[in-house]
Amino acid sequence: xxxASAPGKVILFGEHAVVSGATALGGAIDLRAKVTLQDxxxxxxxxxxxxxxxxxxxxxxxxxxxxxxxxxxxxxVSAVLKxxxxxxxxxxVESNLxxxxxxxxxxxxxxxxxxxLNQHFGLGLSRKEIAxxxxxxxxxxxxxxxxxxxxxxxxxxxxxxxxxxxxxxxxPSLEIVVGYTERAHDTRSEVEKVQSLLARYPDxxxxxxxxxxxxxxxxxxLIQEQRLEExxxxxxxxxxxxxxxxxxxxxxxxxxxxxxxxxxxxxxKLTGAGGGGCMIALPPTGGSAALITALRQAKGTAFSVKTGxxxxxxxxxx
Length: 318
Ligand code: PMV
Fold this sequence. Notes:
Blueprint: E1 2-13, E2 24-39, E3 44-50, E4 56-59, H1 71-83, E5 89-95, H2 105-120, H3 127-141, H4 149-156, E6 159-162, E7 166-169, E8 175-180, H5 187-200, H6 202-224, H7 228-244, H8 250-260, E9 267-271, E10 278-282, H9 288-297, E11 301-306, E12 313-315
Parallel strand pairs: 3-5
Antiparallel strand pairs: 1-2, 1-12, 2-5, 2-6, 3-4, 6-7, 8-10, 8-11, 9-10
Helix pairs in contact: 1-2, 1-3, 2-3, 2-4, 3-4, 5-6, 6-7
The protein binds (3R)-3-hydroxy-3-methyl-5-(phosphonooxy)pentanoic acid.
(3R)-3-hydroxy-3-methyl-5-(phosphonooxy)pentanoic acid binds at residues 11, 15-16, 18-19, 102, 104, 146-147, 149-150, 187, 191, 272-273, 277.
């Protein structure tokens, strides 16, 4: 047996603006997807399980669906198996990342599957190759759109600043509370919507993207120096600018306002493509539990994560 795991991520600042070349900042989180490979001569079997989807099994050879749900994991795992012409395997996916929520679940699955195959079949891929192959495969499944942020964070972990290129940053860990609306989002359609707004109103949306890029750059030293109140203000401004380009929803706003109000957060914003998915909030020191309660009262699923977590790794506890 061979197993590998890779982390999910949060975009702290800069989503959407990064698509047009502005700076964004993201961090790997301590929720992971784990992929285990076991030899299974003559068959390819994918089992997936996670917190938000009930377990299921899908046999790629016989086409037998043992319990239909979670097409998400299967799509990504089968793309990776195809890429490396891997067969005679049982692939088990265990993830505690909700899919299509903006937390990098698909990238974590692609990267963990690639790293596990790399080890199992001695493919000799470097980390850099895992990151770039994974980005290409994720993009192909998602049909074209998508920055390398998710796959790079799943591979390398830590924090990444991304503009025209991807740059690792050495920053301290942050405790962040995630509020999930329980509504899946479609990154591609949100990106298309925002890009169309930019094309129609470049004089308005261009400066918004510039301001978002400036926030991402400013945030680096605020995290470095643990200036959390100002960091919270940056989150609030970034959220307002994302609302301005139309990717907010009522549910996301309710969670953002609950965080800033009853949750006493320093700041809150949506994270990822918007239109559903998740928001993040920065609790005052020792204030995560109260913030989680406030989010749950506002009908969100809430949990606390740490940023700056380790990238893809082989799991040896078998
Ligand atoms: O919601 P996610 O994790 O798919 O993030 C999308 C982030 C965007 O900036 C909107 C698109 C991208 O590829 O960077």
